[in-house]
Amino acid sequence: MSVERENYQKFRKFALDQGFSLFGVADISQVRDEFNLDKDLMNRFDRAISLGKRLLDCVLDDIKDRPTPLYFHHYRQLNFFLDRGAFLTASYIQDLGFKALAIPASQIIDWDKQKSHVSHKRIAHLAGMGWIGRNNLLVNPKLGSRIRLVTVLTDMPLDLDKPMKDFCGDCRACLEICPANAIKERKEDFDHQACFEKLREFRKSRIVSQYICGLCVKACKGLKSNTMV
User: Fold this and answer.
1) Does the pTM of the predicted model rise above 0.85?
2) Does the structure show a pLDDT above 60 at 72?
3) Cβ contacts of residue 65 below 8 Å, gap of 6+?
4) Sign of torsion, CA 13 16 17 20?
5) In angstroms, how far is CA 112 from the centroid of its own chain?
6) Is 217:55 a contact under the CB 8 Å cutoff?
7) Distance between CA 18 and CA 15 in Å, rounded?
8) In the prediction, which pLDDT does 112 show?
9) Is 110 in contact with 117 (CB distance < 8 Å)?
Protein backbone atom coordinates (compact mmCIF):
# COMPACT_ATOMS: atom_id res chain seq x y z
CA MET A 1 0.00 0.00 0.00
CA SER A 2 1.32 3.46 -0.88
CA VAL A 3 2.05 6.06 1.78
CA GLU A 4 -0.65 8.31 0.26
CA ARG A 5 -3.27 5.56 0.52
CA GLU A 6 -2.23 4.59 4.04
CA ASN A 7 -2.49 8.21 5.20
CA TYR A 8 -5.86 8.62 3.50
CA GLN A 9 -7.33 5.57 5.20
CA LYS A 10 -5.87 6.58 8.56
CA PHE A 11 -7.42 10.04 8.47
CA ARG A 12 -10.71 8.87 7.01
CA LYS A 13 -11.07 6.53 10.00
CA PHE A 14 -9.98 9.33 12.35
CA ALA A 15 -12.70 11.62 10.93
CA LEU A 16 -15.47 9.04 10.99
CA ASP A 17 -14.54 7.99 14.53
CA GLN A 18 -15.00 11.63 15.58
CA GLY A 19 -18.54 11.54 14.21
CA PHE A 20 -18.12 13.16 10.80
CA SER A 21 -20.49 12.01 8.08
CA LEU A 22 -18.32 12.77 5.04
CA PHE A 23 -14.59 12.76 4.27
CA GLY A 24 -12.67 13.62 1.13
CA VAL A 25 -9.32 14.93 -0.07
CA ALA A 26 -8.81 17.53 -2.80
CA ASP A 27 -5.84 18.68 -4.84
CA ILE A 28 -5.78 22.47 -4.40
CA SER A 29 -2.47 23.17 -6.14
CA GLN A 30 -4.25 24.73 -9.14
CA VAL A 31 -6.91 26.72 -7.25
CA ARG A 32 -4.94 28.46 -4.50
CA ASP A 33 -5.53 31.87 -6.07
CA GLU A 34 -9.28 31.49 -5.52
CA PHE A 35 -8.92 31.70 -1.75
CA ASN A 36 -8.52 34.63 0.62
CA LEU A 37 -5.39 33.66 2.50
CA ASP A 38 -1.92 35.17 2.42
CA LYS A 39 -0.17 33.75 -0.66
CA ASP A 40 2.96 32.73 1.21
CA LEU A 41 0.81 30.82 3.67
CA MET A 42 -1.43 29.29 1.01
CA ASN A 43 1.52 28.10 -1.07
CA ARG A 44 2.59 25.79 1.75
CA PHE A 45 -0.36 23.51 1.05
CA ASP A 46 -1.27 21.35 -1.94
CA ARG A 47 -3.94 19.18 -0.31
CA ALA A 48 -7.18 19.93 1.50
CA ILE A 49 -9.14 17.55 3.68
CA SER A 50 -12.86 18.23 3.50
CA LEU A 51 -15.04 17.13 6.42
CA GLY A 52 -18.84 17.15 6.51
CA LYS A 53 -21.43 16.64 9.23
CA ARG A 54 -25.08 15.84 8.60
CA LEU A 55 -27.72 18.15 10.09
CA LEU A 56 -30.58 16.80 12.18
CA ASP A 57 -33.68 16.33 10.02
CA CYS A 58 -36.09 17.19 12.82
CA VAL A 59 -34.44 20.59 13.30
CA LEU A 60 -34.89 21.33 9.60
CA ASP A 61 -38.49 20.10 9.73
CA ASP A 62 -39.18 22.86 12.25
CA ILE A 63 -38.36 25.49 9.59
CA LYS A 64 -41.42 26.71 7.66
CA ASP A 65 -40.78 30.05 5.96
CA ARG A 66 -37.90 31.47 8.00
CA PRO A 67 -35.07 30.33 10.29
CA THR A 68 -35.99 29.33 13.81
CA PRO A 69 -34.23 29.71 17.18
CA LEU A 70 -33.90 25.92 17.22
CA TYR A 71 -32.10 25.98 13.87
CA PHE A 72 -29.86 28.82 15.06
CA HIS A 73 -28.82 26.80 18.11
CA HIS A 74 -28.21 23.73 15.94
CA TYR A 75 -26.15 25.83 13.52
CA ARG A 76 -23.91 27.10 16.32
CA GLN A 77 -23.45 23.62 17.82
CA LEU A 78 -22.51 22.23 14.42
CA ASN A 79 -19.93 24.97 13.93
CA PHE A 80 -18.40 24.10 17.30
CA PHE A 81 -18.29 20.42 16.33
CA LEU A 82 -16.74 21.19 12.93
CA ASP A 83 -14.12 23.57 14.28
CA ARG A 84 -13.08 21.19 17.04
CA GLY A 85 -12.84 18.28 14.60
CA ALA A 86 -10.79 20.31 12.13
CA PHE A 87 -8.47 21.45 14.93
CA LEU A 88 -7.94 17.88 16.15
CA THR A 89 -7.24 16.73 12.59
CA ALA A 90 -4.75 19.52 11.94
CA SER A 91 -3.06 18.90 15.30
CA TYR A 92 -2.72 15.18 14.54
CA ILE A 93 -1.15 15.97 11.14
CA GLN A 94 1.30 18.39 12.76
CA ASP A 95 2.26 15.79 15.36
CA LEU A 96 3.20 13.49 12.46
CA GLY A 97 5.61 16.12 11.14
CA PHE A 98 3.56 17.78 8.40
CA LYS A 99 2.03 21.22 8.01
CA ALA A 100 -1.70 21.73 8.58
CA LEU A 101 -4.12 24.61 8.95
CA ALA A 102 -7.72 24.27 10.14
CA ILE A 103 -10.02 26.81 8.45
CA PRO A 104 -13.00 27.99 10.57
CA ALA A 105 -16.33 26.55 9.49
CA SER A 106 -18.18 29.85 9.51
CA GLN A 107 -15.86 32.83 9.66
CA ILE A 108 -16.99 35.32 7.01
CA ILE A 109 -14.47 38.05 6.18
CA ASP A 110 -16.68 39.87 3.62
CA TRP A 111 -20.43 39.62 4.24
CA ASP A 112 -21.52 41.62 1.20
CA LYS A 113 -19.69 39.18 -1.06
CA GLN A 114 -20.24 36.27 1.34
CA LYS A 115 -16.55 35.37 1.29
CA SER A 116 -14.55 33.41 3.84
CA HIS A 117 -10.88 32.43 3.88
CA VAL A 118 -11.58 29.47 1.61
CA SER A 119 -14.71 28.10 -0.01
CA HIS A 120 -15.56 24.95 1.93
CA LYS A 121 -18.09 23.90 -0.71
CA ARG A 122 -15.57 24.40 -3.53
CA ILE A 123 -13.05 22.20 -1.75
CA ALA A 124 -15.72 19.61 -0.90
CA HIS A 125 -16.64 19.47 -4.57
CA LEU A 126 -13.00 18.93 -5.56
CA ALA A 127 -12.81 16.28 -2.83
CA GLY A 128 -15.59 14.23 -4.44
CA MET A 129 -18.24 14.86 -1.79
CA GLY A 130 -20.85 16.35 -4.10
CA TRP A 131 -21.47 19.10 -6.64
CA ILE A 132 -22.51 22.75 -6.45
CA GLY A 133 -26.26 22.85 -6.98
CA ARG A 134 -28.71 25.49 -8.11
CA ASN A 135 -28.96 26.56 -4.47
CA ASN A 136 -25.27 27.58 -4.50
CA LEU A 137 -24.57 24.91 -1.88
CA LEU A 138 -22.80 21.58 -1.98
CA VAL A 139 -25.22 18.79 -2.89
CA ASN A 140 -24.28 15.31 -1.76
CA PRO A 141 -26.12 12.48 -3.57
CA LYS A 142 -27.22 10.85 -0.31
CA LEU A 143 -27.58 13.80 2.07
CA GLY A 144 -28.40 16.65 -0.29
CA SER A 145 -27.43 20.01 1.19
CA ARG A 146 -28.31 18.89 4.72
CA ILE A 147 -24.65 19.05 5.73
CA ARG A 148 -22.15 21.57 7.03
CA LEU A 149 -18.51 21.60 6.02
CA VAL A 150 -15.06 22.44 7.30
CA THR A 151 -11.58 22.27 5.75
CA VAL A 152 -8.05 21.37 6.80
CA LEU A 153 -5.21 22.44 4.50
CA THR A 154 -2.08 20.28 4.55
CA ASP A 155 1.09 19.20 2.77
CA MET A 156 0.74 15.60 3.96
CA PRO A 157 0.87 13.08 1.09
CA LEU A 158 -2.70 11.81 0.70
CA ASP A 159 -4.65 9.99 -1.97
CA LEU A 160 -7.01 12.27 -3.88
CA ASP A 161 -10.71 11.98 -4.54
CA LYS A 162 -12.26 12.95 -7.88
CA PRO A 163 -14.87 15.71 -8.30
CA MET A 164 -18.44 14.66 -9.07
CA LYS A 165 -20.34 15.89 -12.09
CA ASP A 166 -23.31 18.21 -11.53
CA PHE A 167 -26.56 16.30 -11.23
CA CYS A 168 -29.48 18.23 -9.79
CA GLY A 169 -31.48 16.78 -12.68
CA ASP A 170 -35.11 17.89 -12.76
CA CYS A 171 -35.19 18.80 -9.06
CA ARG A 172 -36.10 22.43 -8.42
CA ALA A 173 -37.22 22.19 -4.81
CA CYS A 174 -34.79 24.91 -3.76
CA LEU A 175 -36.15 27.36 -6.37
CA GLU A 176 -39.69 26.91 -5.10
CA ILE A 177 -38.87 27.49 -1.44
CA CYS A 178 -36.32 30.33 -1.62
CA PRO A 179 -37.86 33.38 0.14
CA ALA A 180 -35.50 35.77 -1.69
CA ASN A 181 -35.98 34.36 -5.21
CA ALA A 182 -32.19 34.22 -5.28
CA ILE A 183 -32.01 30.71 -6.76
CA LYS A 184 -32.27 30.50 -10.53
CA GLU A 185 -32.42 27.79 -13.15
CA ARG A 186 -28.67 27.97 -13.65
CA LYS A 187 -26.34 27.88 -10.66
CA GLU A 188 -24.22 30.57 -12.32
CA ASP A 189 -27.15 33.00 -12.01
CA PHE A 190 -27.54 32.65 -8.25
CA ASP A 191 -28.31 36.13 -6.84
CA HIS A 192 -25.87 36.52 -3.93
CA GLN A 193 -27.07 40.02 -3.11
CA ALA A 194 -30.75 39.04 -2.91
CA CYS A 195 -29.80 36.13 -0.66
CA PHE A 196 -27.78 38.36 1.65
CA GLU A 197 -30.54 40.98 1.85
CA LYS A 198 -32.99 38.30 3.00
CA LEU A 199 -30.50 37.08 5.61
CA ARG A 200 -30.10 40.67 6.77
CA GLU A 201 -33.89 40.97 7.03
CA PHE A 202 -34.14 37.84 9.18
CA ARG A 203 -31.37 39.09 11.46
CA LYS A 204 -32.79 42.61 11.67
CA SER A 205 -36.19 41.27 12.69
CA ARG A 206 -34.43 39.43 15.55
CA ILE A 207 -35.65 36.04 14.44
CA VAL A 208 -32.04 34.91 14.78
CA SER A 209 -28.89 36.85 15.62
CA GLN A 210 -26.82 35.64 12.68
CA TYR A 211 -27.10 35.75 8.89
CA ILE A 212 -28.73 32.35 8.31
CA CYS A 213 -31.84 31.03 6.62
CA GLY A 214 -31.94 27.23 6.17
CA LEU A 215 -34.84 26.94 3.72
CA CYS A 216 -32.83 25.75 0.72
CA VAL A 217 -30.88 23.44 3.03
CA LYS A 218 -34.16 21.90 4.15
CA ALA A 219 -35.43 21.54 0.58
CA CYS A 220 -32.41 19.66 -0.76
CA LYS A 221 -32.57 16.03 0.39
CA GLY A 222 -30.30 14.42 -2.22
CA LEU A 223 -30.93 11.68 -4.74
CA LYS A 224 -32.11 8.13 -4.38
CA SER A 225 -29.13 6.91 -6.40
CA ASN A 226 -25.86 8.41 -7.53
CA THR A 227 -26.08 7.98 -11.29
CA MET A 228 -23.29 10.33 -12.29
CA VAL A 229 -20.31 8.20 -11.23
Assistant:
1) yes
2) yes
3) 179, 215
4) positive
5) 19
6) yes
7) 5
8) 63
9) no
